[in-house]
Amino acid sequence: MLESKATMAGWLLKARSRCRFSLSSALHHPRFIFFFSHVAEREHVHTSTLTKPSFIDPTAAVHPDALIGQGVSIGPFCSVSSSAKLGNGCRLYPGSHVSGRTELGDNCTLMTGAVVGDDYPGCTVIGSNNSIGYHAVIGVKCQDMKHKPEDECFLEIGDNNDIREHTSIHRSSKSTFRTVIGNGNLIMGSCHIAHDCKIGDNNIFANNTLLAGHVEVEDYVHTGGGTAVHQFCHLGSYSFLGGGSVLTQDVPKYVMVAGERAELRGLNLVGLTRCGFSTAEVYHFLNLVGLNCIFITTKQIFWVMFQIRNLRTAYRKIFMSFDANAGSLEERIAEVVLFVFAYFFRELVRYLVSSLGWISHGKLILQELHEELGHVPAVRAMLQSIRNSIAENRRGICRIRHWNVS
After folding, report:
1. Is 323 assigned a catalytic role?
2. pTM for this structure?
3. Which residues contact 254 (CB under 8 A, 6 or more apart)?
4. Active-site option among 106, 196, 201, 219
5. What is the pLDDT of residues 353-392, one digit of tens each?
């Protein structure tokens, strides 16, 4: 009897080992893993983050009242205040700190030593997908001597910004002001953005760029290393600031400036070309005159003829006029407007007559174009930028460099 039971037990163990469909083998079967991996890939892009539990290192000091999203990772020796709010997927590397009323959007990263927020009145709001570098200080009290400790101050940062190591960005100086950073900016190491600055989108600030209080920067502005900008200055879109420049006045759109006391050095043609600026502008012009069906080669001719050439002509007539009777800056701007309109008319007639044979329709097209030329963005935007800079409450534009032609 004992031998028969032993034989039966041995047979069962042997059969179990040969079983191909046990639970363990099924779960680890390649087809099972392959199937569920593809199911997971079909889920929403944030599913893995939302289902992943948050990790808080035991040495981190996280207040119980802090709002922590899903999939958040808080490393050793970090601190999170009671009023802080961390979005889903945020990562705090060791030794980073979130203080005061601070909101971090989804998928933000704080590198080691980064400090975000302050315990002073006010708040810091940061959007999604931002990276804050090593030992950067973001959203702390401003350095304005007129600031009152009881005033609330604010900082707002958009999405997809890369803020590198040792950068400092301060809150506003008053409750009625805001320090604002847009989207998609690259702020390199050791930059400083002071109180009440307003930064647009897609700007690149090289290392040690210093912006004083109330500076306004539009979009697609590039600064060289060691650039310093005086309070209340305005930097127009697509402008370029050479390395080591010191700016005490405004920079119009589309131009380059450089020098210890920055001077205008011409149009930022390379920057405009890299941004695809002229192509978009010429398509707008072609829409005005109804030439959408023309081949790309003709569009490229218009791109050169109506954009780069006009901007160069406008720049030379305004800033490089050596005629003593040229008049004031405002008079030169008005002259440029008339010159550009006349140039458009002349070149358009030449093109229509020689290439398309639209002689009978020429007058009608020119009449319609004359009504719409005020909407051509390139030159109009540059002229308006200059007018704004010479207004009474502005600092004027950078002085003009007169090259020695002797």
Report:
1. no
2. 0.69
3. 236, 237, 238, 239, 267, 268, 272, 311, 378, 381, 382
4. 196
5. 444 443 333 344 444 444 444 445 666 676 677 777 777 6
